[in-house]
Amino acid sequence: MGSVSDPPHFDGDNYAAWKAKMKSFLWALDDRVWLAVEEGWEPPTISETKGEGQFYVTISMLKPRRQWSEDERSISTFNQKALNALFTAVSPEQFNYISKCTTAKEAWDILEVTHEGNSTVKESKLQNLITQFENMKMLDDESFSDFYAKLSVIANGCHNLGDSIPEIELLQKF
Description:
Number of helices: 8
Number of strands: 2
Mean pLDDT: 88
Oligomer: single chain
Structural class: mainly alpha
Strand content: 5-15%
Largest sheet: 2 strands, antiparallel
């Protein structure tokens, strides 16, 4: 059962469902929390030029936290809220994958690659689902709700891998 105050738990099973629930949870916290996951966050830096005569080098370094602007603090807080929610949501086994992460995007990306694979693996999974969809037929002794459930699993799997089956194709299957 879901909660608006506690993130959905992930123990390594059914990543696609957890991912959808977690995205919704993070976005509900604040759209800028989800933005920290989607676009990432980097600590503010300052540049310092050093050198003499003709030889100058510009060095970029982390800005001391006490010098951060209110805007920089706010953006950092959205990242921390997202990272905290991710840390809280996962089992100890899953936490081992992301425990050293300092940004929510980094943690999200690690979980995504770990459980969905890289783009090549995703494409292979997607092709497998599309083939299943194309070959799917309702059996004579199958109820409409059973067929719909199987179709939904395939359609949701495609959507979660980034390629939705057009509505018209789903309707034609019925």
